Amino acid sequence: MGSIDWYDKALAYKENYVEVLKGLLAIPSVYDESSKTDKMPFGEQIDKALRYMLNTGERDSFVTKYVDGYAGHIEYGQGSGLVGVLGHLDVVPADGEWTFGAFTPTLTEGRLFGRGTLDDKGPVVAAYFAMKLLKDSGYEPKKRIRLIMGTDEERDWQCMEHYFKYEEMPDTGFTPDADFPLIYAEKGIIDGYISLPPATAQSDKLRLVRFHGGKALNMVPGQAEATLSGEDLTAVEQAFAAYLTAAGIDGRAEVKGNNILLSVSGKAAHGSTPEKGRNSVIVLAKFLQSLPLHGDVTDKLNWLVEKFEDYNGKGIGLGLTDDVSGPLTLNLGECKMTETDAWSIGVNIRYPVTAAYDTVKENLLNELAEAGAGFKQSSHLASLYVEKDDPLVETLVDVYRRQTGDATDILAIGGGTYARAMKKGVAFGPLFPGAPDSAHQQDEHILLDDMIRAIAIYAESLYLLTKDDHI
């Protein structure tokens, strides 16, 4: 294609990018059990988001395919080789107060706000416009370029499991769902639910009726609530107010008859970086520990704090680390308890790339057995590790460094991206070093100029990956 100013070409799509992305962001594509059907396996709004992107591709004369409501793809080019770009259109729930509304996309001062702007709708649309840039320029790749869009990344990856049962696996590719310059290693991920038996008894003076927090295992809970019933609730209310002040957190107490509802606001964050958040379940549990509850209830609260306050898993016997990807992380993403039901504790464990899955699982089960707790695993993603000198890695990193002048070293992360769904893939952007990381948080947003730069980087990368057959 000769000498190309990739950024200048990408800049020409800025208004169109914002227009298409805003339409996608306005769709609240959160998993919805109540509206799921055989044809819409993750709910009506997720299906709507998928169809929106496929319709956009059809409008621009790409080849598109809708795969049973689980996923879809947008493709162009000829040849037997296939380069994949994998992204997702589902988003995590939007907790808390948002400045502009989670699904009311708003562009102000160069920042576009809305749930999914960073994770992962904004990057998916950037990859789409990278393909459109190449296609509009008359480029004819020697391999096919396929943008594969999943719809269950934030839960169990059922979308990719179904998609690759019926569709071709890319020879190589990347996912725009992490950081620049490039992610070459991703920790293994275990999701599951720990169960503790119900309390054997409750105090006559003060009972813990309900304790709940969190909505997704891969998200640090930003909100938690507890309902107590009994005598002298004024004293509980006063103690709670003092606790909130001392801990420097927001919360409220509401007395209704013989019940008091306590709620706290922590700080939501992605489950791969629990150190960036403040777990509201732990915050509230630490207050409940101080109350005159029945001994069995207090023992369970003590166990919860002791085992899960440390986000590197040391409390539960999982203090593992390696030089490639760093320490294991443990996120308590959900907690559900009522007086009569077993306690359910949802966890997201991300273990180092050189650690053995069987060892991690065995250590966890042994620790839980000592407390009489059970564990039901809901999913496992094996770790990803692509060598630094692999041609795919070298090609993408060269593009990034040439366009940005940034020599930052490539990364290993705890996040789980679609890169590991491919035969050979890596995570590549869109977050630039030093840019705000608001994924899974209130007021999630992107820097618009960064996304235009990402379009340029993705366009050149796809060009180099498909201009001949050697990569």
Automatic annotation (TrEMBL):
Supply the alphabetized keyword list: Dipeptidase, Hydrolase, Metal-binding, Metalloprotease, Protease, Zinc
Query: What are the residue boundaries of the Peptidase M20 dimerisation domain, all occurrences included?
Result: 262-333
Query: What SUPFAM superfamilies does this protein's entry cite?
Result: Bacterial exopeptidase dimerisation domain, Zn-dependent exopeptidases
Please give the superkingdom of this protein's source: Bacteria
List, separated by semicolons, the cofactors it needs.
Answer: Zn(2+)
For this entry, list what GO says about its biological process: L-arginine biosynthetic process; proteolysis
| Sequence intervals crossing the membrane | none
Picking any one GO molecular function of the record gives: zinc ion binding
Give the family this protein belongs to, as stated in its UniProt record.
Belongs to the peptidase M20A family.
Per its record, how is this protein called by name? Succinyl-diaminopimelate desuccinylase
Classification from the root reads: Bacteria, Bacillati, Bacillota, Bacilli, Bacillales
